[in-house]
Design goal:
Chain lengths: 129, 372
Amino acid sequence: MEYPAGLKYSREHEWVKLEGSVALVGITDFAQSELGDVVYVELPEAGAEVEANNTFGVVESVKAVSDLYAPVSGTVAEVNQQLNDEPELVNSDPFEDGWMLRIEMSDASEVDGLLDADEYKAFVEEESA
Amino acid sequence: MSEPSGSLLRTSLYDVHVEAGAKMVPFAGYEMPVQYAGVIDEHNAVRGAAGLFDVSHMGEFEAEGPGAGAFFHRLFTNNVKKLGEGVVLYTAMCREEGGIVDDLTVYRLGTERYMAVVNAANIEKDWEWMSSHKEGGDLNFRNVSGETGLLALQGPRSEEILSAVISGGGELGAITYYTAAMRNPAGCEVLVSRTGYTGEDGFELYCAAGDAPHLWRELMAAGASKGLKPCGLGARDTLRTEMKFALYGNDIDETTNPLESGLGWVVKFKAGDFIGRDALMALREKGLSRKLVGFEMVDRGIPRHGAPILIDGKPGGVVTSGTMSPSLGKAIGIGYVPISHSKEGSHIEVDIRGKARAAKVVKTPFYRKGED
């Protein structure tokens, strides 16, 4: 299981990579491995408003539908359109090509409430114990 | 096969699954493997080579004696009377009102010996229903579910793999589609049945529960170089959905009847009396109001069990099964629609998370060998 350092993590298993005032968002390696083969991703349109801890879309494996929760609030600046045709990127490359949204943050201080890699790893190990 | 873990039962293969890295989930009261490496890989193994499934959770009832044939004939909608020795029959079992108690396969194992193979979730219910109709019959009716192991070896390379674990090869060619005979794979006493739930060639292997782990390991060893993979319930579901094979509890249940659910072909009105015949005759006279159809999504989204089907914008049906089809690469579904919209090409919509999404009724099975 990978927990790249330098990223921030939510308790809903999303990761955040900070690019100035923009947050790049995806789901973690742990999340994709729990889901199994991802076959469908539904994301908001660019320009949509998302709110921290609220759902912004769904990810579906063959068997199950799971909600995606925004780790931070803001406006969707860009959506990974590649996931429409290649949802399996979420499995094969969750931290790079499997990214989901770029969010222009409305409140950068929300990032302080997220976990760092070590904290998230401990959280996962506790949750799956 | 009944070591309880909490309230869940385990098949005799539980340890084998855990060793193989299976993800275990509760299903029909059992702790069963939903996947090993991944559903799509397993699905593709069955379509392209072979897959091995543990389906020991299913129920087996044996009826033996002079009254056994008549007993089954009265319970089942299909014609048990014409069933020859060594032949298998798919059938529905209905209530007097025509609702489906279960769908099952029936085996004639000897002149006066039959076996019914029922869905795991229905074992108790079926046993009660069937036992209550035994009155006066000269027969011995036994529930042998607990002592019976059942493996499904499915896929185009199944015969080759099974043959490799039978000394002398087993002359499996003699066991044609929907027939069964005794063989000795891996040195075990096995009823080898050329049947399955995937749309591929393959076998269902009935053995003593205690022999199942040995049989499983020998088959896996013989098949490893031929692309054989252990497969879980996830792949079993995508494979059967691509064939539009009904799953009890999803597509059919006591509120549905065989005529509307596409099982009319196993209802033999002319074969004599069976439970539910009058009600089904009346339904046929009156005409059906809805039908179970296959559809594919036109808009994006995956239809899931329970999602409303919209006709002209209004609720008019319901999705009973749906998945992303690994073989076809598109979202497919099964559901009840009004007769008016049951023809191939009919436009319907599926309410997915509150949004109406276009779909169209298509010919089934969704998947046909050689067309992918």
